[in-house]
Amino acid sequence: MKTHAARGPRRWPTPSTSTRTRPWRRSSGSSSGTFGGKQDLYLAALGRYRDRFSRPAFRALAEDPRGLPAVAAFFAALVDARCTGEYAGWGCLVAHAHAGAEHATPEVRALLDHHHDELRDALHAALRTARDLGRLAPAADPGTTADVLALLAYGVNLRSRAGADAATLRTTTDATLAAITA
C-alpha cells in the first residue's frame, strides 16, 4: 500500500498528524511549531493543493478558446488523475475536506467555498465560450450547467476513491457533456 505525506495511506481514513509527518522524519510537534497546530497544518495543505493543482487547471479551462472540448479535456484529465498513476484511488483533498469534519472551521470553510467558486467560474467561462461558438445546447444555461458540472467533478473525485473505474467515470462524464452539446 502506497503512502503520501500529505494524504496518508491510500483508501484509509484521514491520518493523524504524526502519520502525515512520519515520511519526513518529523514529529507532529515540529509540524505544529511550524504551522501553529493541526488545523493550521491542514489549512496550509489545502492552500498548497489549491495553488499547485486546482488553480492551474481552472485557469487553463477558463482561458481555453475551444469551449466544450476544453470541458471534455478537463474531465478526461480529472478521470485520468484519479484512476491512473501514483495517486490513483486517492480522490481529491478538497472533495474529502467538503465531506469530512475538517470543513467545520470558518477558515477551512472559506477556502473550500472559494475553491468551489473558482471551479464553477472556470466551467462557466468555458460554457459561455461554447455558447458563443454555437456548441452549447440552447436549453443549457451556462451558469446552471456550470453548477451541475462542478458537482459532477466532486462526484468523479469521490467515486474514484471508492474504486470506480475510469471507463465508468468517462461514460458518465461523456454522457453529461453530450446532453449539453448542440
Q: What is the name of the CATH topology?
A: Tetracycline Repressor, domain 2
Global geometry: globular
Q: Order of SSEs, N→C? A: HHHHHHHH
CATH architecture label: Orthogonal Bundle
Number of helices: 8
Secondary-structure-derived class:
mainly alpha
- Classified by CATH, the class is Mainly Alpha
Q: Bin the strand percentage.
A: under 5%
The major sheet is characterized as: none
What kind of oligomer do you see? single chain
Helix content: 55-70%
- How many domains make up the 3D coordinates? 1
Radius of gyration: 18 Å
Question: What integer is the average pLDDT?
Answer: 85
Strand runs, count:
0
Region (Disordered): 1-35
InterPro entries: Tet_transcr_reg_TetR-rel_C_sf (IPR036271), TetR_C (IPR011075)
Organism: Streptomyces laurentii
Biased composition (Low complexity): 11-33
Q: Layout of helices and strands, plus pairs?
A:
Elements: H1 17-21, H2 28-35, H3 38-63, H4 68-83, H5 93-99, H6 106-132, H7 142-161, H8 166-179
Helix pairs in contact: 2-3, 3-6, 4-7, 4-8, 6-7, 7-8
Keywords: Transcription, Transcription regulation
InterPro entries: Tet_transcr_reg_TetR-rel_C_sf, TetR_C
Biased composition (Low complexity): 11-33
What do these coordinates show?
The termini are far apart. With 182 residues, the protein is mainly α. The chain is globular, with a radius of gyration of 18 Å. The protein is built from 8 helices and no strands. It has one domain: Tetracycline Repressor, domain 2. Helices cover 68% and strands 0% of the residues.
